[in-house]
Structure formats: C-alpha cells, structure tokens
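Hi R.,

Quick one: here's the Glyoxylate reductase/hydroxypyruvate reductase sequence you asked about.
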Amino acid sequence: RGIRVGYTPDVLTDATAELSVALLLAGCRRRSPLLLSDICFYLALSASGGWTTWKPLWMCGYGLSDSTVGIIGLGRIGQAVARRLKPFGVKKFLYTGSRPKPESAAEFEAEFVPLTRLAEESDFVVVTCALTPATQEMCNKDFFSRMKKTSVFINTSRGAVVNQEDLYNALAHGQIAAAGLDVTTPEPLPTDHPLLSLQNCVILPHIGSATYATRSTMAVLAANNLLAGLRGEPMPHELLL
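And here's the predicted structure, written out as tokens:
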C-alpha cells in the first residue's frame, strides 16, 4: 500500500545489556517476588528482623566467577552482555543462533554450540535473540530439563521465545535455580500469574530501554524519520521491505 516504515536501530543495545546483567545478578542470589533486587530484599530483611544470627548457608546463591555463560543470539545486545560479564571472571562463553559468528565471538573466545549443549553446560543462560518462527517457544520443557539445577535463566528478548508454563514448572519444581525476565506474554503480566508467586523469579515490566539517554535518542530518531517521510525524502533509518 506504499506505506513507508521508519525504525530506531542500535539505540537499545547498552541499556538492554545493562539490564540483562542486573537481572542475572538478581537471579544469582535469593530474591523476593515483591522486590526487584537482592539489595532491596536484604534491606527489608534487616529492617524487619529477618537478619538474626549468622548461618553458614543462609542467603547463599551462585557466583559468576569460573562459570559458563550461554548466550542465545550473539547479536549487538548479546555481545554487549558478554562484554559486561567478562570482567566478572566468567570462565567460558557459549552461544547459539542461526549461524556461527566467528568475528563477533573472537572477543570473548565464545564457542558456537547447538541449543541443547548450551542448555546442558551453561551456569547462566541469557536470551537476547529476535523473535521469529524458529525461536518461538524455543525455551520449553525440553530445554529446561537439560539445564543444571543450579542454572539461572535470563530473558530480555521477547516473551514468546519462552514457553511460560514450562518455565513455571521448571522453577516451581527446582529443575532450574532461578529466572529473571524483562519480557513476558502477555504484557503486562496479570497480577495473578503463577510466575509472580515464585520467590526464585524476578520479573520487570519490559524496561530494557528505560534510560533517559536511550529514550531521548529513540524519540529524535523517530521524529527525524517522520519529518523525512512527510517531505518525501529518504528516512535516516528506513525499513526497506
């Protein structure tokens, strides 16, 4: 119908990568479904009297040092996540996707592996792939059954990449240790959704791009696309269909 489409590429990378790391760190330790971070949870415990005598394994979780991180989708955001996690002492990076990306993977010495192997060997799984027919519900019962019981699952891509019922069952039955989600199906997630009842699942309201700089840049790009389109000129960022 001759409708031109403008979009805002590349502006979300850093903000989403930072949030992915925040979710991963929140998933590493004990958390509360009503609080968005371990720090808030620990502060609440201290204030409410939950902090009593020292116990050897109280509030213990899992660390990144010497761990294996699996990234599903080593695109711009996946690479930015790996770049931020590398200084934490990650021992090995695995990645999977539609094809190997040796040039991108070289910076992290990341190994391209099948999805099944990534699930089996990763201590942390971070999903940053696009939603396509091939990736829809790729993280399902079979995937979670292959993960370690101590593994943490993070999704900042799209909610439909995950079968949420299967994820709930994996978390509720101790099949995996924890999950951190910035995306769900639907959005907003109903307040009575079973995932929100779990203490080992942190859910954020799709705020991957929520920094002042990112939202400002998005607005400027969208406005410039619109003005160019109205003038009949090439858009600075036009999706060519």
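The chain is about 35% helix and 15% strand.

Cheers,
M.
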